[in-house]
Write a structure and sequence with these properties.
Largest sheet: 5 strands, mixed
Radius of gyration: 28 Å
Order of helices and strands: HEHEHEHEHEH
Number of helices: 6
């Protein structure tokens, strides 16, 4: 096989490869996914959340699939975990906010969050990843230290500081006990691995067709 025949063969292979790569994204379009996010967080406790209309579910009462998804969301570096449609958990309200449309105002946003969220009440002794709740905000409630004035005043201040720290620790435990999980159904973002793969396929197809066409058409 001479050089011209070899170039024609290579060009044909590249054209076929390019067309196949371009057809891939069309044959396998982007599919929506079910997402689970633990980043929103809440400073409220169980009774407050129930009074606001949130659904509070004890971890032990989650289905096995619900427990698996919750733990995977906690382990995710960005606090977000997605699964294909049809592979979620029945207790999560994926379509809870559909009737609201596009929430523009604060009231609409809060209502959407309430309808598309569940609160997981974590057991005290469960072997779970740390809750993705704003526990660090509790430290901002710590009162500034006062300047000591005499022995008795210093003792009283130390006692007050110890009681304050005890109350803050109790508050930390309450905040970490109730974990807000926002769920829903949406199209994956551009940075999703599947979208990046489709983009790569399009780029590969474009380059392959360009090079293959050049090899086939050159004199």
């Amino acid at each position: 096989m001479n050089g011209e025949e070899l170039a024609d063969t290579a060009g044909t292979v590249l054209l076929v490869l390019g067309v196949t790569a371009l057809l891939g994204p069309a044959l396998f379009p982007v599919q929506q996914v079910l997402y689970h996010e633990t980043r929103a967080g809440t400073m409220a406790d169980g009774p407050e959340l129930r009074a606001e209309g949130y659904t509070v579910i004890e971890y032990e009462n989650l289905s096995e699939r619900g427990k698996e998804i919750y733990v995977d969301a906690l382990r995710s570096p960005d606090g977000a975990y997605t699964v294909p449609v049809g592979q979620g958990a029945s207790e999560f309200p994926y379509d809870g906010g559909d009737d609201l449309g596009d929430a523009s105002g604060r009231a609409e946003f809060e209502e959407r969050q309430r309808l598309t969220s569940v609160v997981i009440e974590r057991p005290d002794d469960a072997d779970l990843p740390p809750a993705d709740e704003p526990v660090e905000r509790i430290d901002r409630e710590r009162p500034p230290p006062e300047d000591p004035v005499g022995g008795r005043e210093t003792a009283n201040q130390n006692e007050t500081a110890t009681e304050s720290e005890r109350q803050l620790e109790q508050r930390r435990q309450v905040v970490a006990k109730y974990d807000l999980v926002t769920v829903g159904q949406r199209t994956p973002p551009v940075t999703d691995s599947g979208n990046l793969l489709r983009l790569g396929s399009v780029l590969l197809g474009t380059v392959a067709i360009g090079v293959g066409g050049y090899l086939r058409s050159r004199p």
